[in-house]
């Protein structure tokens, strides 16, 4: 048993949990009871003076002007103090629904306790905890519980409603019981459902009325589409007649000849110019290579002479060693010079072979060009004009294709409109049915509202 002691009220601090709502009636009743019988239960505080349990008794003493109050000091931390005081407040039902939810939120989010752990410590069910914490999921509901307009149990029913009607229903159920709230909520949900169905029926009715109205205009639209289709068919026939004429048959031949000129003749002209430029380049390179045949012959003779002399002086190696080394060096240099001249001569010959090959290609191209000039002289000389003729003919064919596509679209449109006209009776029957259903829903709504 912990020791009870009296402490001056001024030395006692704030409660561990600061309530937002104080029940004034309970406070006044407690004050009268204390004046008559004294304080039956002491308050409990922590070592640092924070109130764990008995905040309402503390306020009653303070307002009565009593200087000292019986207390029991507990050696516990703030978390345990909150749980201890909360358990006592729940038992005496001293906290508002909102303050109760606030403490649960602190235990869950502030101290990280699970619903199971909280339930064990305060001896309440997980469902009870969940029900209180659910108010924080909706600002409108939270505000109403905080202001005391509804209870947590009413909040559970109101959370089933759409957001836009919650404020209206909160005003209606304030001061009502949970059962009354459940009934009002159910009626409101039914009313909203019926209104939504009426609105959906109205939209369907308007859509059907629009379809029927448009369907009645369709016969004239179909006639207009048929006239347009006949006009376009006439245009196709005119184009077909032009395509079959002798003039356009000649254009078909012209198209073929133009294709040959563009794919064969003009590329040959281009290749002719490229060959000409390549020949000029190779000729310049060949001219720059100077093969000194005279020097080559002289050097060869000189080398032979030196080799003969080397053979002679071999017998006199000791006396002519220096001479031999000198002559060998001269022979090496002459051999390198011969190789260089031979390389240049080989390159020059290769250039000359390339020039010869390109000259032949040039002559062949020139002959082909002359043949094309002779065969397609008219097209080559009047290329731009002939090109325009072909382009004009091609555009005519493209126009024909576009007209045929439009005719196909017109046929599809006529078919679609005819199907709509055939369905008018079905639309009218459906319209009457929807109007009847809407009227019945309006009766139900009127019955609920009254």
What topology emerges from the helices and strands here?
Layout: E1 4-8, H1 24-37, E2 43-46, E3 51-53, H2 55-64, E4 68-74, H3 78-92, H4 97-110, H5 115-122, H6 126-133, H7 139-146, H8 152-158, H9 163-173, H10 178-244, H11 246-288, H12 293-313, H13 317-375, H14 377-381, H15 383-422, H16 424-449
Helix pairs in contact: 1-2, 8-10, 10-15, 10-16, 11-13, 11-15, 12-13
Structure explained in plain terms:
With 450 residues, this protein is mainly α. A four-stranded mixed beta sheet has the order 1-4-2-3. The longest helix is centred in the middle third of the chain and has 67 residues, at 178-244. The protein is built from 16 helices and four strands. Among the domains are: 4-164, Conserved hypothetical protein from pyrococcus furiosus pfu- 392566-001, ParB domain (Alpha-Beta Complex), CATH 3.90.1530.10; 261-388. α1 packs across α2 (55-64) and α11 runs antiparallel to α13 (317-375). It has helices at residues 24-37, 55-64, 78-92, 97-110, 115-122, 126-133, 139-146, 152-158, 163-173, 178-244, 246-288, 293-313, 317-375, 377-381, 383-422, 424-449, and strands at 4-8, 43-46, 51-53, 68-74. It is flat. A hairpin with a 4-residue loop joins β2 (43-46) and β3 (51-53). It starts with a strand and ends with a helix.
